[in-house]
Amino acid sequence: MSTAPIRRLTPEEYLAAERASDRKHEFYRGEMFAMAGASRKHVAVTGNFFAWLHYQLRDEPCTVFTSDMRVEVERTGLYTYHDISVTCEQPEFGDGHFDTLLNPQMIVEVLSPSTETYDRGKKFDHYRQVASLKEYVLVSLDQPMIERYTRVDEDRWTLDVAKGFEATVELSVTSEPLPLAEVYRRVDFSADE
Question: Where are the transmembrane segments (predicted)?
Fold first, then answer.
């Protein structure tokens, strides 16, 4: 008994299907992968971080994107979604549309239980192939903690960790340090969501 080979999509077919879909999908090596929805805590933390960044960068030549902006990792062929991205350069978009960013400077991922291993591992492996990326920020949902990876050169990254409501984290795109109390404003860590 033989099985029919799996039909692989081209990036163009993926983008056409994704633009017509009401759900988000990652794309890698010809396959589409549905993305899960976010918890209330995840949405709150992402919204707080985005609002703070947007306010801080309001007079700067930077653009802050939400999770609706797709990122293409040209070197590996991954199309994915992040929680927040920033570019302080002229945004570059793929294929003549304005929904696939090619040159993020900073990417923020809020760590959900179902995606934490991927965000720390394979997804970060892909993101490191984006030449414009200078920092990768991981935001915990278990405790007030932010991990910031900063590019030293093409193959080396440094890690800074900020913990606790009184802590702050320096970001390359802002002149003011980010207070963790702002990111975790009104977040209930005792709630299991």
Answer: none
pLDDT reported for residue 75:
95
- The half-sphere exposure of 31 on its side-chain side, counting CA atoms within 13 A, is 6
Q: Is the dihedral of CA 76, 66, 13, 28 positive or negative?
A: positive
- pLDDT tens digits for 32-58? 999 988 889 999 999 999 999 999 999
Rounded CA-CA distance 72/131 in Å is 12
Indicate the fold that domain 38-183 takes in CATH: tt1808, chain A (3.90.1570)
Do 79 and 14 meet the contact criterion of CB atoms below 8 Å apart? yes
Amino acid at 178: L
Instruction: Delimit the domains of the chain by residue range.
Output: 38-183
> Which residue is it, tokens 């934490």?
116
| DSSP-assigned letter for residue 93 | B
Tell me how far apart the alpha carbons of residues 101 and 41 are, in angstroms, rounded to a whole number.
26
The 10s digit of each residue's pLDDT in 84-138 is 999 999 999 998 899 999 999 999 999 998 899 999 999 999 999 999 999 999 9
Cα–Cα dist 180/47, whole Å: 13
